[in-house]
Amino acid sequence: MTFTTNQLDHYKLNESKYEVCKIEHRLICHFLKSLKFHPKPLIFGHSVTKMSENRLNVLRTCFIIRTVFSDGFKHMSRVFAYCRVSTADQTTQNQSLEIKAAGFAIQPRRLVEESISGSVAAKERPAFSKLLDRLEQGDILVVTKLDRLGRNAMDVRATVEHLAAIGVRVHCLALGGVDLTSSSGKMTMQVIAAVAEFERDLLIERTQSGINRARAAGKRFGRPSSLNNEQRVKVLTALDVGRSVAELARDFKTSRQTIMRIRESALKNQ
């Protein structure tokens, strides 16, 4: 129920004729409590004259606010901050101070801190996963660096896209505080993703080149063989005379698969 200023003045000017309605008083108390103001209870049956001048002014102001903003401050944006360190020996104090210095006022209950390796995917981090469940449309998430949002560029992009889909704005201080869900932020993310993909391709190319050089030098990869060359010859000789694979595996204290691989390798080389 919404009251205009004229109606409140009407109550004030005719305070000897009107009594406070129970429903109106309940609405008044509910709204004032949402503003952290706890009014004193009224004794129903008494006239409006029991209300003080100051209290009437407070009610007039509150109802004007209610009329203008409809549901009050229910849908105002909440600001969250996520701070992460890799080990328990480190602290997130520098990150929280950096966020405060950037002009973001973060309430303690909305400051999420976590000690976990940066190699863990964002949605696999316990504290960050719970934070995702708390975020709602219109909220703001502040981080100091991009690696707080994922283990690599692809994970960061997936996290930002998920937050943008639910209507959450993401600000990264390392990028000048830009909103990553905005047009300029999306362009920045595309550039970062392209650079990360280029570095990934270079890493794969260098790794493959090193493997090829090692193979050319005669280096063998994988786990060392459980049987040496002399034992392998004995296994082949025993197989030729008709001994079973299981029996040879027990004698040489190895697995049946190892004996069968030796036999298959000998057949291929024939």
> If you consult CATH, what is the topology of the largest domain?
Rossmann fold
The radius of gyration over CA amounts to 36 Å
- Could you give the count of β-strands? 5
CATH class of the largest domain: Alpha Beta
Would you write up a description of this structure?
This protein folds into three domains: 65 residues, no CATH class; 112 residues, Rossmann fold (3-Layer(aba) Sandwich); 41 residues. 51% of the residues lie in helices and 8% in strands. The protein contains ten helices and five strands; from the N terminus they run αααβαβαβαββαααα. Strands 2-1-3-4-5 form a five-stranded mixed sheet, with helices on both faces. Strand 3, helix 6 and strand 4 form a beta-alpha-beta unit. Helix 8 crosses helix 10 and helix 9 crosses helix 10. About 16% of the residues have low confidence.
Give a summary of the structure in a few sentences:
With 270 residues, this protein is α/β, with parallel strands linked by helices. The chain is 51% helix and 8% strand.
List keywords for this structure.
single chain; 270 residues; alpha/beta; Rossmann fold; five-stranded mixed sheet
Topology at a glance:
Elements: H1 5-13, H2 22-34, H3 53-69, E1 79-85, H4 93-101, E2 111-115, H5 126-134, E3 140-143, H6 153-165, E4 169-172, E5 178-179, H7 183-216, H8 229-240, H9 245-251, H10 256-269
Parallel strand pairs: 1-2, 1-3, 3-4
Antiparallel strand pairs: 4-5
Helix pairs in contact: 8-10, 9-10
